[in-house]
Design a protein that fits this description.
183 residues, mainly beta, five-stranded mixed β-barrel, four-stranded mixed β-sheet, 1 helix, 44% strand, binds zinc ion
Amino acid sequence: MSDNSVFPGDKIASIEEYEAGHNAFDDGDMVRAATMGERNMDKETRMINVNHPKLLSIPKVGDVIIGTVAAVMSSMIAVTIDYINGKPTTSKVECICGTRNMRIRNVALVNDIASLKIVAHLNGTIHAVMNEPELGIIFTKCRKCGGKVVTMRDAIKCTDCSWIDERKLSSDFGKSDFIHLRE
Ligand SMILES: [Zn+2]
């Protein structure tokens, strides 16, 4: 919160100085904030506005998100959230998902699309899991050549170079309705 943060009812200017603009009203004496937000004075028009804070879309525990794998580390992946419960979000919040206990060669690659379930918020970090059948990777490419892959039992195989690899695949892997979701 900055010095310009105001709460509903706060006095934000006198009516001699400023006129009430967006999210502000005057009570006959003072201009007051009608909402929580940031005080914004326009010296030219002599209007005072309150800018409502951007609604950050932070997923809640239990939400299912779809996101883009941003980083792959030895024991976890970081995923930038694109959808929360199927609704697009532009706030680009990241969550992390532990992969230590998965005996899979390449759980995910950077730029894969993953479906995860949020399980906790800890110290400002959003933690997610992919340990349910419908959770996991829903879009990936060949690690060797970037080609299209198809599933082969628990593995994936590149249709171009035949490289066989593993991922923690979602049961939704390869479903076409996901393509519509990305467009
Ligand atoms: Zn390939």
